[in-house]
Amino acid sequence: MGVFEALSGAKGLRVAGKSAQNIANFNAEVAKQEAIGIRKRAAFAQKRQAKRGVAAKSALIAKLGEGLTSPVAGDLIAEQAVETELENLLIGFEGEVRARQAESQAELDILQGRLAKQRGKSAGRAANIQFGTQLATLGFLSGFGQTGVGTPVKVQ
């Protein structure tokens, strides 16, 4: 079968399909690593933003000074805390969305690789069939076996 596959070109088609799958799997691994990196960067950005929030709250308290007993001051500090928390949640949410997009791309790459491998196998089968048909046709045309001598058929 090895020579037949080589002559028909099927082996090359199968190898090309497998190579495409390997490339897709590599791309998937890159996308998975990107997702991990995105999550880590988002977590770091959340920590950095939380520190900025604490600093902003401290600066607000310092500006208010003696007016801390005022209900307006309490509302301002509470509002600042809510804004800080919402911003922190948004950073985390955006990071998670980007990470999931990268993971989805990884899954898509893996699927495309499987399809490429299957296309290579199918193309290889088609090449084998086509080559076999050509050989059979050439065999009949060139007269494998007895040429010009027919087998008598009895009609009853």
Task: Name the features.
156 residues; mainly alpha; 3 helices
Can you characterise this structure?
With 156 residues, the chain is mainly alpha-helical. It has one domain (10-137). It is 86% helix and 0% strand. The chain is built from 3 helices and no strands. It has helices at 2-8, 10-64, 71-142. The mean pLDDT is 85.
The global form is rod-shaped
Distance between the termini: 44 Å
The secondary-structure class comes to mainly alpha
**Helix segment tally:** 3
What is the helix content? over 70%
Number of strands: 0
- Overall mean pLDDT stands at 85
Strand content: under 5%
**Rg, alpha carbons:** 35 Å
SSE arrangement:
Layout lengths: L1 H7 L1 H55 L6 H72 L14
Helix pairs in contact: 1-3, 2-3
